[in-house]
Amino acid sequence: MGTSLAHPGLALAVVCAVMVLAAALVYRIADLEHPLAAPKAALRGALQLAVVSVVLAAALQHLWSSAAILVAMFVAAAVTAARRADAGRSGAWLSTSLATGVAAVLPLLLLSGVVPLEGVAVIPIGGIVLGNAMTATSLAAKRALDAIAQRYGEVEAALSLGLSLRDSRMEVIRAAASDALLPGLDQTRTVGLVTLPGAFVGVLLASGSAVQAGAVQILVLVGVLLAQTCAVAVTMELVARAMVTRSAR
């Protein structure tokens, strides 16, 4: 037996408006910067979801259109990762990190039959994997580039000892970039104890089966771990080889 949640309507609009106004009020009372940040973010999110909902309703009808949506999502993720890392034009190389992460997971899920080759399944799973790979990639690149800027003397010292540029930079960035994997690891370690992630809740509400929801969630979490690990590993190599650098100011 399925369970319905959050039907579009007046009640949903009123509740969302109350929460947004409450957030803005807390901004004002706590003297946080930009009290309108929450309302602006909520309005933008609502508009984007409205457009995406209409587009997806049509795209999910065909596999080719679903694939096109994933390609558009990939481009947006690549641009976002480069911008967050403040890597300028060299940030385009970070698309390699994203592609590696996604390629390590999606083909395995689809070819094994665990995820059906249908738009209604491919887009959500692909989006989750891509989104988490993007977060890990941008964070790894940013922290790695920050580490090189702050500890450049150590890089030069390693170079003077005969280490290659790649090895010298890797000595500095390895620990910093590896921190990008901590959120994913912590989420997997604490799932069911501290949090119930979206995939679990979504399947539970749709099917009413906690077992099926748990199976889908562990599949998603393990896939995310693999995608993030591959993406961060490639990002470290790109930064260590100076293919991704900090943009000139």
Automatic annotation (TrEMBL):
UniProt KW Manganese keyword: no
Family indicated by similarity: Belongs to the UPF0014 family.
Name of one Pfam family that matches: UPF0014
Chief place where the protein resides: membrane
Claim: ATP-binding is one of the keywords in the record: no
Highest taxon of source: Bacteria
Protein's name according to its UniProt entry: ABC transporter permease
Signal peptide: none
Topology of the protein relative to the lipid bilayer: Multi-pass membrane protein
Membrane-spanning segments: 6-29, 41-60, 66-85, 92-115, 121-141, 191-212, 218-240
Compartment(s): Membrane
Keywords, alphabetical: Membrane, Transmembrane, Transmembrane helix
